# Entry
Amino acid sequence: MKRYPKALRTVAVTVAAAFAFMAVVVAPVHATMVGTDAVLQAAEVDAARHTVKTFLERQEVVEQLQVWGVNPDEAQTRVDAMTAEEVTLLAGEIEKLPAGGTDALGFVLLLALLGFIVLVILDIVGVTDIFTFINKK
# Structure
């Protein structure tokens, strides 16, 4: 050790200066509690964003976007850029859309059947005389 006292002193001073510099430069960290509502809200936003992205990946939606001249990848990028409120609102509107079972033709057929039943009842009661196959008393 006596052979390198000047080199050891230089290394020690350099290391001490580096530690002193690190202590001055690093800003103190302040920890705070994260509320449950903040975590739940972040999870809801992530779920809403996933809902919108899944909707945009459907084949019929991709085809319609292309008909409108919108690139599906650009639409996905725009979803990433949306605010939490916008994504939540859009996901809510997507959830309100009817599932594949309810369409206009089924609704019209249901209305026609209801109308037919009402007319048959009115004809049986004697209010109308539309159907000849109904025997009236």
User: Anything to note?
Assistant: The two ends are 127 Å apart (CA to CA). The chain has a mean pLDDT of 81. Residues 15 and 21 are 10 Å apart (CA to CA). Residues 36-57 form the longest helix (22 residues).
